[in-house]
Specification:
With about 325 residues, this protein is an alpha/beta fold. The protein contains eight helices and 14 strands. It has two domains: about 140 residues, NAD(P)-binding Rossmann-like Domain (Rossmann fold); about 180 residues, Dihydrodipicolinate Reductase, domain 2 (2-Layer Sandwich), CATH 3.30.360. The longest helix is centred in the middle third of the chain and has 16 residues.
Length: about 325
Amino acid sequence: MKKYNVAIAGATGAVGQEMLKILEERNFPIKELRLLASSRSAGKTVNFKGKTFRIEELKKDSFKDIDIALFSAGASRSREFAPSAVASGAVVIDNSSAFRMDEDVPLVVPEVNPKDAFGHNGIIANPNCTTIVMIMALKPLYDYSRIKRIIVSSYQAASGAGLKAMNELSEQAISWAEGKEIAVDKFPYQLLFNVIPQVDIFMPNRYTKEEMKMVNETRKMLHDSEIKISATCVRVPVFRAHSEAVTVEFEDKITPEKATDLINNFPGVKITDNIDKAVYPMPLFADGKDDCEVGRIRQDINGENWLSMWVVGDQIRKGAALNAVQIAELLIS
């Protein structure tokens, strides 16, 4: 089997660490592994497959002889360093928002639009984690009957804002238990015992940037600019796994039974739905899992062309690191 030289830019972050774990779990054929991060992290060591690797500082000349560069270092660093990686001959799989809406950059979920990956010019974008969780549930339904309208509310875990955000939630819980003052830094308000109806900055139309990502990215991956989408994204005091309440209008009649069958036969997503036994997807059980889970599937009271459902997925895995590694697997296949 051919092996590849792989670099991870942002190797010390939550997603970078998960990428390493997934590369090892899936036995990706690596010849050389190069781990890159900021100058603050340079010199730290990381274990991978029983070997110790030293973190190098991310620079424009870091990608010599690299075949695949997995980026999870933020949009500004992707814009700064990804072109250098491409110029060195690497294919960049970028987890940030830097290139997602560029016309020349494919936006890919391998189960949803794999062919798009092969139209790249050196960069392939990983969609936003919230969009990935939703589109995994909706793609098999869209293939059955075109979707006309989506109304979605997300309940997003702290980890969507990074490792420091997860640590802040943990520290807030400890401070509360010890009767100490609760510190706030990563979010505009205390997240513990609270929900914050703002993820990312507000746009001129009063939607947040995160909400508009769900709109624009879904349309791009489904190649359907006519879908009407309205999203409300909310941060909740959960460590990992995003949850979403999704209501969908289709062109044709679709029953919960048909939707269940379609989703059950789609890779990377599974049904968790038995209301008689209080079985439904929850972040508590989705944490660390590869599959997105769908439950509470019901005929929406708007009519026979409408369905409502509840979708949960670990946004660090399928919503970020796993999807990036799957794109790499797709390319070498």
